[in-house]
């Protein structure tokens, strides 16, 4: 993946200038920007700090400081609370639980529904609330992997690695319906979710392919080993904030080409106790390209808090939601360290 900044340098935290117009056609004769919806989308009004720090919202926060809010609880209830407080976010970047891949041992968790359609329907409900919270010029980025239907019953092998993946009777271990859910079927959950979101009015801008170098090989004999996942970029409107120079590919001529839609990123080595944490490199383009100055990044499935920490390190405000109190505590500790380091740097 390209390095931060048009010239391949890492931008300092908080240093954000409005993105350059995409072409000279966007510039009027006097050198200013033409008053178009596309150009206005490059200058969104930030959510006021007094709204971000709404007392009614902070009362329910597991952790909060001037730039960060961690909410513990059901994702839908937490999203409704943010909507009621009048918060608008600029960038939502998240990786919901994958279908049938993990059991987090928490009541109300997603990913263990009896049928994959139930799982997709629940995610569509969550992202419908996200749409109400997302600014009209904002972007939604979803990383999600796929699942094969097995139909073999509960896991019986004593292999440790397989045991971590196959916890008792997973949804995909059941007999299935004989059509979509049948043995050896790749369920195509990522694209079924994307299509379901399209039908709810979202615009799908990219289905980015995340290539994992040196993946752990699948123990299979009759198909290729999986080495990729998807990251979908969706928007509410044709006109939205996007700074391609922050993430583009600088050419010797000085031109900056758009980032490619294939990202080779190693999976995260692990963060705290989370079983499937984000890689910071995977969220670099989403956050830097679609979060304006003073913008707010939201991760409704916050987990280990990679999105919040990355956003904080680059000068943005952020909100994270998670059902696990343990994960919320780990994120709060990490944010407190960043807050203390920033205060020390300011000489406070």
Characterise this structure.
This protein is α/β, with parallel strands linked by helices. It has one domain: Vaccinia Virus protein VP39 (Rossmann fold, 3-Layer(aba) Sandwich), CATH 3.40.50. It has ten helices and eleven strands. The strands form two sheets. The chain has a nine-stranded mixed beta sheet with strand order 1-2-11-10-3-4-6-5-9, with helices on both faces. α4 runs parallel beside α5, α5 packs across α7 and α9 packs parallel to α10. The longest helix has 22 residues. The radius of gyration is 21 Å and the shape is globular. The N terminus is likely disordered.
Helices and strands in order, then pairings?
Elements: H1 37-40, H2 49-52, H3 55-58, E1 61-64, E2 68-72, H4 75-84, E3 89-94, H5 116-133, E4 134-144, H6 160-165, H7 189-199, E5 203-211, E6 228-235, E7 249-250, E8 256-257, E9 262-264, H8 280-290, E10 296-299, H9 306-313, E11 317-322, H10 325-346
Parallel strand pairs: 2-11, 3-4, 3-10, 5-9, 10-11
Antiparallel strand pairs: 1-2, 4-6, 5-6, 7-8
Helix pairs in contact: 4-5, 5-7, 8-9, 9-10
């Amino acid at each position: 993946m390209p390095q931060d900044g048009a010239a391949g340098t890492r931008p300092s935290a908080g240093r954000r200038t409005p993105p350059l117009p995409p072409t000279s056609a966007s510039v009027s004769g006097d050198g200013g920007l033409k008053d178009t919806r596309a150009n206005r989308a490059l200058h969104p009004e930030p959510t006021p700090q007094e709204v971000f720090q709404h007392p009614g919202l902070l009362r329910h926060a597991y952790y909060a400081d001037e730039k960060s809010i961690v909410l513990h609880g059901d994702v839908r209830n937490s999203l409704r609370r943010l909507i009621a407080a009048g918060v608008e976010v600029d960038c939502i970047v998240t990786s919901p639980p994958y279908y049938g891949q993990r059991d987090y041992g928490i009541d109300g968790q997603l990913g263990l529904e009896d049928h994959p359609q139930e799982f997709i329907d629940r995610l569509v409900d969550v992202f419908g609330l996200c749409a109400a919270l997302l600014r009209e010029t904002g972007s939604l980025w979803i990383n999600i992997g796929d699942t094969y239907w097995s139909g073999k019953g509960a896991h019986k092998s004593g292999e440790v690695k397989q045991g971590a993946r196959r916890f008792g009777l997973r949804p995909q271990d059941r007999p299935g319906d004989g059509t979509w859910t049948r043995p050896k079927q790749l369920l195509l959950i990522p694209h079924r979710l994307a299509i379901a979101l399209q039908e709810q009015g979202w615009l799908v801008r990219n289905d980015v392919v995340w290539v994992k170098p040196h993946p752990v090989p699948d123990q299979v004999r009759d198909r290729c080993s999986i080495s990729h996942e998807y990251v979908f970029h969706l928007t509410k409107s044709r006109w939205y904030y996007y700074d391609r120079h922050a993430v583009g590919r600088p050419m010797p001529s000085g031109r900056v080409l758009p980032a490619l839609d294939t990202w080779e990123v190693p999976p995260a080595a692990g963060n705290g106790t989370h079983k499937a944490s984000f890689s910071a490199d995977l969220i670099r383009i989403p956050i830097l390209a679609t979060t304006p100055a003073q913008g707010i990044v939201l991760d409704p499935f916050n987990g280990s808090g990679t999105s919040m920490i990355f956003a904080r390190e680059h000068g943005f405000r952020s909100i994270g939601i998670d059902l696990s109190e343990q994960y919320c505590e780990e994120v709060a500790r990490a944010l407190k360290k960043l807050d203390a380091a920033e205060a020390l740097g300011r000489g406070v």
